[in-house]
Amino acid sequence: PDVISGDMESAMAVELNPWVEYEFRVVATNKIGTGDPSAPSRVIRTNEAVPKTPPANVSGRSGRRHELVIAWEPVSEEFQNGEGFGYIVAFRPNGTRGWKEKMVTSSDASKSIYRDESVPPLTPFEVKVGVYNNKGDGPFSPIVVICSAE
Q1: Rounded to 5 degrees, what are φ and ψ at 78?
Q2: Which of 30, 59, 105, 122 is the most buried if burial means most Cβ atoms within 10 Å?
Q3: Closest CA to 76 of 107, 49, 113
Q4: For the segment 107-139, what is each residue's pLDDT rounded down to a tens digit?
């Protein structure tokens, strides 16, 4: 928070990230100068919330014949907003309706492989990757078009 008058006994920290541990200190200042910071408070974790940050840089990677390899940059822990974090990988052949979805339960995951013997090489797919945690589903990345392996 901003500077608080000397007669205040509390302050409210705002715009903190969900599911992050914080410590707080107090520093006093007067005409003479600034004192040493207080000892840190006990560690406080903010409440969980639905994730709001989708993975970045969704792209295709090389793979084996009949594979669609979907890659992304994992969401850092500070933006996972709670326990049970994972990814929802959605894909469909370009120009079709209805998404196929695959759940990826590892928060560290950075790729998913879909294998289908009936998919010809270099078939274009629309792909998006979303996020979820125990509180619910978050947003999807923008749709990108990638091709199945040759």
Answers
A1: -65, -15
A2: 59
A3: 107
A4: 999 999 999 999 899 999 999 999 999 999 999
Alpha-carbon distances of 117 from 16, 64, 128, rounded to whole Å? 48, 11, 22
CATH of the domain at 120: 2.60.40.10
Six token digits for residue 147? 């091709």
17-23-27 Cα angle (round to 5): 115
Q: How many domains does the chain have?
A: 1
Q: What is the mean pLDDT of the chain?
A: 94
Task: Give pTM, 2 decimals.
Answer: 0.85
75's tokens:
């969401």
Residue 98 lies in a domain: yes
Question: Which residue intervals of the chain are DSSP H helices?
Answer: none
Contact 71, 61 (CB under 8 A): yes
